[in-house]
Amino acid sequence: MTIRRTFAAAALVTVAFVVTACDATPTPPPSPSASASTAPAPSPSPTPTAAASDDPACLVGTWVLDEEGMGAYYAHVNDLLDGAAEVSPEGNAVLEIGEDGSFEWRPDARITSVVAGRSMEVSLTGTLSGTYTAEPGQIRADADVDDQLEITGTVDGKPVDASGIAQQIGGVPLADAAFTCTTTTLDLTTSLVDAEVTTRLERRS
Asked: What is the pTM of this model?
């Protein structure tokens, strides 16, 4: 069993309800000044939601995949694998996307998985950098990358060669992904186990 390259974050949706009430007690016809003072205050206009864009220009910036986002992704992975693995991440990763077509991926994470009763832990740090191409709604990392990732692993507490695992979990999530972005979020969507999963990163700058 392999774990695909991308981390992902499920979007958290918060819904707010505003309840208002009015006084139904009859009153004499108000004077103009009284009318002005007793008229109900206008409801505040809702804050507009930033529209998602597939314009490659919105990719440029510094994006962060936090621990909560990684956890949401792996919860989805666990569901897709019907509970065959339990994967728990800690840490975060930073993705720099340059206007000049360059990118740098900086993970600082520890990923623990339990498969068939065996525990594996992989620590991932360092950088992976290269260039990318983008068109509306699609981004791809070019094949030639500078891989400076540092990976260590253990199985049941004993050191193992984690280089193979690194090929699965260490890659930058824009390897070949559909995207949409707003001023604050970047969603990268790839395929996993015959389903689509979305990585949500938050803009740092």
From this structure: 0.70
